Amino acid sequence: MDFKFDLLVNSLPVLLKGAWVTLQMSFLGIIFGTVCGLILAIFLLSRTKLLEVPTRIFINLVRGIPFIIQIFIVYYSFSSFGVEIPAFASGVLAMSLNTAAFQAEIIRAGIESIPKGQHEAAKALGISKRQAMMRIIIPQVFVKTLPSITNELITLLKNSSLVSVIAVVDLTRVGQQIVSTNYSPAEIYIAVALLYLLMNMAISQGSRYLERKTAIYR
To answer: What is the pTM of this model?
Structure first.
């Protein structure tokens, strides 16, 4: 096989630009998704049917529908109402909603794993329930769930390749464009795969570093 190394070298700057878009979408998705997941987890634990039931329905819908279909629903729903939003924003929104549903269960389990004595001690000290949650419980939850959140970020980064179907110029889309021009799929897709692998390895190493730094709190 005539492996075209010169094509890889020439294509690398464009592929790196696509990788940067992929990283931006993934990190925005995980940040917004974590915030939404925290809110959903609190709704699940609220013991208020008006909040708990719709939240469970949303989580079951998101977890039961393929991610690519969720992207189409988000992207085309707005346009059907006459609201045009960029493909990048649609991709981030779809990724945020998707990971929020999964993180809601992760965070809920993390909150329930905190000993009830901490809640009672905070109440005895005159700390309000909201302050106890934000200052005592949530910080511990994120330390405990950091490995799970990291796994979710890695999954989200890999799933971000699907946003290319709505013309987001991410790493996968850039690879497809180069292949359609140069007709060398093996070289380009191997390079794309390696870039995804490097990004995920960097995320894993960053997570291990944070785990070591926060080990004292566990």
So the answer is: 0.87
